Structure to design on (401 residues):
């Protein structure tokens, strides 16, 4: 495994850093410091998306022919890492990281021509309609029904946990088009304009107090057949292809950035003996343990990058391992942040959180988000495949099933 960078990669890293110094303004940094969700709020997303789009870097994994920058695997790693370490806003993954690659792989020429430029520009804001109340880990048991009627499918049923459905103007979704044979064999992948009559959205407020997820209800919602991706009843193959992109991603840099901010705050916070908390041996031990864990995540990511550069696929087991250790280490950092805040973790800070919030933080500025981020990050070991599901995949790989 090669883990050092070539001179041209280091030059690229400097270019990204220089751009970040200019583009990631103090105003954007201040706004992002009040975000606790998985993805930044829509208002902040739009601003940050536009900056990246104007620079040609909004879709780092897209090839040049579709408007991407055509980065090498190493450049992508460097780019993701620099943004994450700078604590840049986390753009929603549903359009650029999920729907885009699926359309490149399975879309018709017409679908690619229409949708890809609009995903890139941010004109289309996507959400993901996979999960249902009775179909999460066991996704193939989904029941939302689509029946063919002339040139349309007519959809009835419900989707749940739909992140940012309240902002999205398009949804990609899985529907049941047949009940014959295996459950996987009767699923179809559709693209839905969210302005279509018959669709309603009910907010779900999470325990951190945020509105990120929703339940969507379909009452005779019509989708033109031309908005089907892949063949009818072949949606499972498309869905699985998409999940590969959902589980990938770089955790280490983001976690390291989070940990740096905990350390900075712990230098200001006083421990029980009146000295800075960061000087407390028990606290330092926890920081050191997390630094070791982040290094392990980072080296695993570099191993993946090294494999990709040599045209080897990530593979199910490695993607599962990364999802598992990445999400669990991220949760541990939010636990340490909570501990660092002490009593300031208790007040309700929601009035000071989110895009455009003007409430006052109770306590120091760094006390605004740790509780909400701690609560929000509990979901990291559920979405994108729960930890138990990842462990099943690893166990199956280990015994060669
Ligand atoms: C914040 C958040 C955002 C989300 N956003 C989206 C979105 O935008 N679009 C979307 O479609 N979905 C979304 N989801 C849904 C997510 O994909 C599901 O929550 C996830 O797949 C788990 O499904 P479930 O909630 O139905 O739990 P279940 O599948 O019912 O699982 C319940 C428990 O049983 C365990 N379990 C299940 N099966 C097994 C097994 N075979 N072996 C061992 N243990 C098992 C699970 O690990 C879990 O602990 C989101 C979820 C969250 C929390």
């Amino acid at each position: 495994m090669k883990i050092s960078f070539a001179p041209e990669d280091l030059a690229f890293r400097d270019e990204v850093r220089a751009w970040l110094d200019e583009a990631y303004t103090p105003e954007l940094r201040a706004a992002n410091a009040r975000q606790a969700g998985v993805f930044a709020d829509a208002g902040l997303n739009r601003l940050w998306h536009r900056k990246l789009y104007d620079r040609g870097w909004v879709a780092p994994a897209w090839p040049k022919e579709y408007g991407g920058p055509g980065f090498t695997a190493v450049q992508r790693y460097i780019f993701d890492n620099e943004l994450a370490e700078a604590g840049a806003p986390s753009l929603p993954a549903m359009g650029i990281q999920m729907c885009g690659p699926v359309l490149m792989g399975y879309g018709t020429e017409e679908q690619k021509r229409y949708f890809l430029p609009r995903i890139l520009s941010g004109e289309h804001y996507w959400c993901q309609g996979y999960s249902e109340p009775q179909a999460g880990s066991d996704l193939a048991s989904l029941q939302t029904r689509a029946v063919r009627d002339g040139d349309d499918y007519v959809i009835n049923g419900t989707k749940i946990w739909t992140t940012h459905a309240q902002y999205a103007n398009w949804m990609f979704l899985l529907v049941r088009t047949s009940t014959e044979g295996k459950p996987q064999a009767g699923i179809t992948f559709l693209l839905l304009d969210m302005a279509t009559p018959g669709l309603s959205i009910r907010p779900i407020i999470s325990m951190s107090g945020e509105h990120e997820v929703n339940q969507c209800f379909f009452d005779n919602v019509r989708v033109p057949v031309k908005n089907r991706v892949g063949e009818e009843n072949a949606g499972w193959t498309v869905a699985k292809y998409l999940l590969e992109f959902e589980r990938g991603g770089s955790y280490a840099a983001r976690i390291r950035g989070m940990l740096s901010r905990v350390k900075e705050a712990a230098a200001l916070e006083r421990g029980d003996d009146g000295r800075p908390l960061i000087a407390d041996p028990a606290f330092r031990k926890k920081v050191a343990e997390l630094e070791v864990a982040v290094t392990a995540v980072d080296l695993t990511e570099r191993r993946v990058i090294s494999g990709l550069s040599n045209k080897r696929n990530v593979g199910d087991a490695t993607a599962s391992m990364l999802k598992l250790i990445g999400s669990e280490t991220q949760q541990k950092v939010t636990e340490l942040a909570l501990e660092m805040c002490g009593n300031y973790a208790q007040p309700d800070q929601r009035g000071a959180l989110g895009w455009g919030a003007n409430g006052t933080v109770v306590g120091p500025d760094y006390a605004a988000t740790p509780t909400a981020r701690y609560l929000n990050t509990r979901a990291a070991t559920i979405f994108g495949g729960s930890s138990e599901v990842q462990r099943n995949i690893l166990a199956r790989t280990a015994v060669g099933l």
Summary: The mean pLDDT is 92. DSSP finds twelve helices and eight strands in the chain. Residues 127-131, 136-137, 161-163, 213, 379, 382-383, 386, 388-389, 392 surround flavin-adenine dinucleotide (CB under 6 Å).
